[in-house]
Structure formats: C-alpha cells, structure tokens
Design goal:
41% of the residues lie in helices and 25% in strands. The protein is built from five helices and four strands. It has a four-stranded antiparallel sheet, with helices on one face. The two termini are 14 Å apart.
Amino acid sequence: MFIVTLTYQSSIKHVEKHLEAHKAFLKHYYDNSVFIASGAQKPRIGGVIIASSSSRETLNHIMQEDPFHKHGVSFYTITEFSPMMCCQAFEPLKIMDENIQNQ
C-alpha cells in the first residue's frame, strides 16, 4: 500500500486547466483497482492518493502518466506502508496488501 502526496507547483488557476485530464487519469486507475481513495488537501495545496501496487517502481511509472506531473503542475512523494490495523470496513485492504506482497 502507498500514500501518494501531490504538492502543487503552480497556481490553482493553472492546476484547474489540467484538472479534467487528471480526473480521467485517476478514474483509469480506479477502474484498474490501483487507486483506493483520493482527494484534495485542505488547504488546497495539493492532493493525496491511497494506492495499492505491486511495487514502488510500478507506482512511479503510473504517477509519471498523471497530467499534473506531465505539465509540471505538481510533484509527488510516495510513502509505502503495510496496513496492520484498520476499521472493519477497510479490512479487505489488509487482505489485498497481503496478496500483492505474496506475488
């Protein structure tokens, strides 16, 4: 499991020019079960994505496809973690992470 933190490098006006393409990028990886949750930071200085990927390298390649990255709108940092505890509703995330680690 990974937490991706995006930090804007441009004005919100410039960010919003690429927002629809960014949303399409997110949707593609939601549809492929890579992204689990995402949203804007508050205050709006960037965003956060929770992702499940077989490796940091794979996720790095995915993030390079993000229109925000391609247009220099934001940079990102990736933090890997292993979910050890969670509420009952998120219990499947632990199982998914274990399955990916065992591949």
